[in-house]
UniProtKB/TrEMBL annotation:
Family: Belongs to the MntP (TC 9.B.29) family.
One GO cellular component, as annotated: plasma membrane
Keyword Cell membrane applies: yes
Topological type in the membrane: Multi-pass membrane protein
Entry-linked HAMAP family: MntP_pump
Source organism of this protein record: Virgibacillus salinus
Keywords: Cell membrane, Ion transport, Manganese, Membrane, Transmembrane, Transmembrane helix, Transport
Keyword Transport: yes
A Pfam short name: Mntp
Record localization: Cell membrane
Function: Probably functions as a manganese efflux pump.
GO molecular function, one term: manganese ion transmembrane transporter activity
Membrane-spanning intervals of the chain: 6-28, 40-66, 72-93, 105-128, 134-155, 162-183
Protein name as catalogued: Putative manganese efflux pump MntP
Amino acid sequence: MSVYQIGEIVSLLFMAIALGMDAFSVSLGMGMQQVRLKRIALIGLIIGLFHIIMPFIGILLGQAISTQIGQFTTLIGGLLLVGIGAQMVFSAFNHDTKKIVQPVGIGLLFFAISVSLDSFSVGLSLGMSGVKTMIALMLFGIVSTVLTWAGMILGKKVHGLLGVYSEILGGSILCGFGLNILFG
């Protein structure tokens, strides 16, 4: 392996960590809900899978799609996170309402898509640069899975310390992260 190849892998690893930090931050908030370890394992695997699928689609379409699409996906991801977070905060105050977005079924798909949309944009740019696709995708998937697990487990621990206020904090984290995506 040449120094250039090692440098490329290290660069891709740092990119994977940067993309996975979205999943970590959002999972921290989502982990504050009463989520079982079995569900945490599944959520991490699904998010890891989406961190492989989304950049792969982006890489495939990288040379055919303009950069305006990347900004559109960022907007959608930010709005989804704000919506999920706001719903968590409102449901903490109104105990009669059922949670609309939970990390199961369609809620899990929305959750996975919202944290992996930025990897689609990265995939677009990687598709134009001719990077080693398989290495990039594997790193993106593995790192985001591990960071999701870490965020959800840490969120679960914080929930035990904060009790009923943890859902408000978790929703606030999701809203803040979504607003950061939209305006940061």
